[in-house]
Design goal:
With about 375 residues, this protein is an alpha/beta fold. About 40% of the residues lie in helices and about 20% in strands. The chain contains 15 helices and 17 strands. The longest helix is centred in the middle third of the chain and has 17 residues. The two termini are about 15 Å apart.
Length: about 375
């Protein structure tokens, strides 16, 4: 197959932006993100560096803005105020529909919520992870149930669109504990829920403790039961399962993440942040200090740059798209990308249909119930 140089209508023009704030109170043992803890002395330099990095953009119009981390709300309120103001001025926000900020429940108070709301933040994503004290202790989180519940209720009142993250399959966790976490979460005013099984990433202290036998993984069977419990319980309160790890009320799917999953292009700034612009994926230095030194000395903070082929683009959109419960319209994606995905992936699709992992009906490829449990494997097959 002769692959075209660009997708049918050219590379998508980004309408989304992600800003990475690397600061945290401390590093949780399972965390593998680009994060610095106990380095608040770098905050001022960081705020200036982000402004310098964003100056390289030509004030593009965006529809979704996501400030993630790390912990954006770790910035003291007056600094957060200045930072959000600065970021807002580097984009044309006239068409902005979703402005999300990630937050630690410990940071939520009326002052911080007022700062967020004053800058037009209309979605907050709280890193709750659990309400159970024993699980929070294992995960090394500093809040307790009362702080988390209070943060959700206050955010719902002031911001109005609340998402929370919950982790399951923590060492020692039982189905009963997870069910209690879900029951409490779903009784609160949330619009969106993301649930992730705990993973032990190389380079984290949890990875080392697992290898030393200090921590134990739960078995696959328990993990699957926990996942299915989340799916079943979420439905009962009107949160529909729209992506492998995500549940939302009608019209509350995360539009910013949909831009990633639909391969629509996005800008990004900050340590470790990755953009997808004009057919290139560029990733900034993960180290905050290296990032700062580069930007301050007028050097690009990008550490890796990859030209994406149209074939890769089509495969990635297929692989991310199939993680959406609604699945992928293969003909439409083939038309938009200029790659005949039936020709490119036909044998893999036929095999996955016969293995009961996907259904391929009326041009739409969707995960089966069994495929939902093996979504990572399906996605990696589609990536080729
Ligand atoms: S608060 Fe979140 S980003 Fe920060 S160290 Fe913990 S898990 Fe990582």
């Amino acid at each position: 197959m002769n692959a075209p140089a660009t997708p049918t209508d050219g590379w998508p023009v980004p309408k989304s932006a992600y800003i990475h704030v690397p600061f945290c109170r401390h590093r949780c043992g399972y965390c593998n993100f680009s994060v610095v803890a106990q380095r608040d002395d770098l905050i001022e330099r960081y705020v200036q560096a982000i402004d310098l990095e964003l100056q390289t953009l030509d004030r593009p119009a965006i529809e979704t803005l996501f400030i993630g981390g790390g912990t954006p709300t770790h910035l003291p309120p007056p600094v957060l105020d200045r930072f959000l103001n600065q970021v807002g001025q580097r984009f044309d926000l006239n068409q902005l529909v979703e402005f999300s900020v990630e937050a630690n429940p410990e940071d939520i108070d009326p002052t911080t919520l007022n700062v967020l709301s004053d800058h037009g933040v209309n979605r907050i994503s709280l890193g709750v992870q659990s309400f159970h004290q024993s699980k929070l202790n294992i995960l090394q989180r500093g809040h307790d149930e009362a702080i988390a519940v209070n943060a959700i209720e206050m955010s719902a009142e002031r911001i109005g669109n609340v998402s929370i993250d919950l982790i399951f399959a923590a060492p020692g966790e039982t189905i009963e504990q997870w069910t209690e976490d879900l029951r409490l979460a779903l009784s609160l005013p949330i619009d969106h829920l993301s649930t992730y099984a705990l993973t032990f990433e190389k380079g984290t202290s949890f990875w080392n403790r697992l290898r030393q036998g200090e921590l134990k993984e739960l078995g696959d069977d328990v993990e699957v039961e926990m996942y299915q419990t989340a799916r079943a319980m979420s439905q009962t309160v009107g949160l529909s399962h729209y992506e492998i790890s995500n549940f939302a009320r009608p019209d509350r799917q995360c539009l910013h993440n949909r831009a990633y999953w639909d391969g629509r292009g996005w800008y990004a700034a900050g340590p470790g942040a990755a953009n997808f612009c004009d057919g290139y994926r560029n990733v900034n230095h993960r180290s905050t200090t290296t990032y700062l030194k580069k930007v301050e000395s007028g050097v690009s903070p990008i550490s890796e740059s990859e030209r994406i082929t149209v074939q890769q683009y089509a495969r990635e959109r297929f692989a991310f798209g199939v993680r959406m419960i609604e699945g992928v319209d293969v003909d439409q994606l083939s038309r938009e990308s200029g790659i005949d995905l039936r020709e490119l992936c036909g044998a893999d699709l036929a095999k996955m249909v016969s293995d009961g992992l996907i259904s391929d009906v009326a041009e739409r490829v969707t995960l089966t119930e069994r495929g939902i449990l093996f979504a990572d494997g399906v996605a990696s097959t589609l990536l080729g």
